[in-house]
Amino acid sequence: MELGQLTIELIIGFFSLLLFTRLIGKTQITQLTAFDFISALIMGELLGNAIYDDDTGVVKIIFAIAVWGLLIFAIQFVGQKSITLRNLLEGKPSLVINKGVIDRQELKKNRMNINELQTLLRDKGVFSAREVEYAILEQNGSLTVLRKPEFDTPTLKDLNLPLNGKSLPTLLLSDGVILNQSLKGICKNESWLKKELKKQGFVNIDNILFAEWREEDGFYVIEKDQLITKGG
Length: 232
Hints:
Layout: H1 3-24, H2 27-30, H3 34-52, H4 58-81, H5 83-90, E1 94-98, E2 101-102, H6 104-109, H7 114-123, E3 132-137, E4 143-147, E5 170-174, E6 177-178, H8 180-185, H9 190-199, E7 208-214, E8 218-223, H10 224-231
Antiparallel strand pairs: 1-2, 1-3, 3-4, 5-6, 5-7, 7-8
Helix pairs in contact: 1-3, 1-4, 3-4, 4-5
């Protein structure tokens, strides 16, 4: 196979898989079920075999990806209409801790032992099963935990503290470069940014590695020299 043809096939295969991944949705990436995992493996295998087979051209690569993609779409569509098929393909959540009691039968059904359950609990910041009222093993293998009231983190409402609104921070300056699009998003301009930074003692824009702004608490700035000093 010539290098030029291989390059073209790799580029087409890459963008075909990228397009397919975007089409199946973000949840397929963040919530990978057993069915999604198998689908991803087969898609990669199809593309790999197609690229390195001298008898396979670009058309066959696209055709293989398209056919397999249509099959996945069809199964997902039917799964949205049929709860039975959806449960068959994706499985059902399992209540592994019910009212503070570990359900050994549910653990056995999911081929899970106590050590694995403890690992998943620690991933959620729970270091003792005694703190858990309910724990659900999700289809993608993650664990959802509801703590007992005495171990739950108190909220501002529980403590009768005043509730203040929150806004998302906006990155306005990165590695010495002013992000004008971000400034437009908060209805500000470059002169406002320089003026506000100067008020706080940041005169040299080029020396700023990171500067974000949030309405309720203003600027958070990290200078390049600051990192060098700490590292040294």
